[in-house]
């Protein structure tokens, strides 16, 4: 078993920012566990190629509080930036190590991974985000059409298809615009008006609609899906039906409640109970990033890393080996 002063679970924006802020204040022996073979899996797996990464997300402008910040840039530039942060700060990331269990001992934790690795540390910061678990619709998705229903963009690009995108936020707008380059796209949203889409995405969406590439289905709700030949028949609640080659759901992510409750973290409604530093009801167990935020974004995730390290320095200086 390895020993660390601090274990961070997840090497996304929040986990990396937490490790950087920890180094800045002099905390040594910080281990990051990452379940994939790369950093920032949400950006790698869910952002489409060339996607604009905006610091203003969900219409919220967040000013940077700590060391990490960025301006609008594309997905690939953002990932390069983050790789450089990891290299410059010599972060100790253990790839392909999915944290599966956190055991609570009297004065420390043992984090067990799917592989051989176990790490013992007095403080654990959980930075696993919410996008590992996409929100799914309430109706069932029949088995025979599962390969045509998506919660993220597939590796193989779709071309010449009739596609339905479902959702009303920035991701739905960006996905619809991206897919409309090579496909015919309908965008279904259950409200009559969009209110969560940022001005840049709204402008792109309007451009695609004006060019006849996207057809908006406002105020539409889906009752269910059915296989029809090699297509999907979408039943809308107003009784209408429409056939598509593929359906994309962009409904956001879900807090990994089972994992957190399994550790003993208490919830208030849908959100875990935390204090201003991200500390849960379990002393020395912190949450950062999307897990700790009502409206998650990259800049807000960076800031939670800074706040959590401020809290650790304030309350647990000795525990993490800081003497001054
Ligand atoms: C399509 C899309 C577009 C977006 N566009 C923007 C944008 O333009 N601007 C913006 O600010 N925000 C955007 N967001 C939101 C932004 O991506 C999130 O707010 C941000 O990634 C949250 O960071 P995080 O570190 O909390 O979690 P994540 O980025 O989700 O990182 C979590 C990391 O933890 C790892 N992990 C998960 N479980 C485990 C485990 N058990 N053990 C070890 N590792 C684990 C994952 O592999 C991942 O690397 C977008 C989101 C999506 C889905």
Automatic annotation (TrEMBL):
Write down the superkingdom of origin: Bacteria
Q: Which GO terms describe its molecular function?
A: oxidoreductase activity
Keyword Mitochondrion set for record: no
What keywords would UniProt list here? Answer: Flavoprotein, Oxidoreductase
Cite the Pfam families for this sequence.
Pyr_redox_3
Question: What is the name attached to this protein's record?
Answer: Thioredoxin reductase
Q: Which organism is it from?
A: Dissulfuribacter thermophilus
Lineage of the species this protein comes from: Bacteria, Pseudomonadati, Thermodesulfobacteriota, Dissulfuribacteria, Dissulfuribacterales
């Amino acid at each position: 078993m390895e020993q660390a002063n601090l274990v961070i679970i997840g090497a996304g924006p929040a986990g990396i920012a937490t490790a950087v802020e920890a180094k800045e204040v002099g905390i040594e022996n910080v281990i990051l566990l990452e379940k994939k073979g790369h950093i920032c899996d949400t950006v790698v797996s869910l952002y489409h190629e060339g996607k604009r990464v905006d610091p203003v997300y969900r219409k919220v402008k967040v000013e940077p509080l700590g060391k990490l910040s960025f301006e609008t840039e594309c997905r690939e530039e953002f990932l390069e930036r983050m790789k450089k942060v990891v290299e410059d700060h010599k972060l100790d990331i253990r790839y392909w190590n999915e944290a599966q269990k956190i055991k609570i001992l009297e004065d420390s934790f043992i984090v067990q991974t799917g592989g051989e690795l176990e790490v013992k540390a007095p403080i654990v910061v959980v930075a696993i985000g919410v996008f590992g678990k996409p929100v799914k619709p309430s109706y069932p998705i029949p088995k025979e059409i599962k390969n045509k229903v998506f919660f993220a963009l597939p590796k193989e690009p779709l071309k010449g298809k009739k596609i339905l995108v479902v959702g009303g936020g920035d991701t739905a707008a960006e996905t619809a615009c991206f897919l409309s380059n090579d496909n015919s796209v309908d965008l279904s949203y259950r409200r009559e008006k969009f209110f969560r889409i940022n001005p840049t995405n709204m402008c792109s969406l309007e451009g695609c609609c004006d060019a006849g590439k996207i057809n908006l289905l406002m105020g539409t709700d889906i009752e269910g899906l059915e296989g029809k030949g090699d297509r999907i028949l979408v039943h809308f609640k107003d009784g209408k039906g429409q056939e598509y080659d593929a359906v994309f759901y962009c409904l956001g992510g879900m807090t990994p409640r089972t994992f957190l409750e399994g550790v003993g973290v208490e919830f208030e409604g849908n959100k875990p109970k935390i204090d201003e530093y991200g500390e849960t009801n379990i002393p020395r167990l912190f949450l950062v990033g999307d897990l700790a935020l009502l409206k998650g974004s990259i800049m807000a995730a960076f800031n939670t890393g800074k706040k959590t390290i401020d809290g650790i320095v304030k309350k647990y200086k000795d525990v993490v080996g800081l003497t001054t």
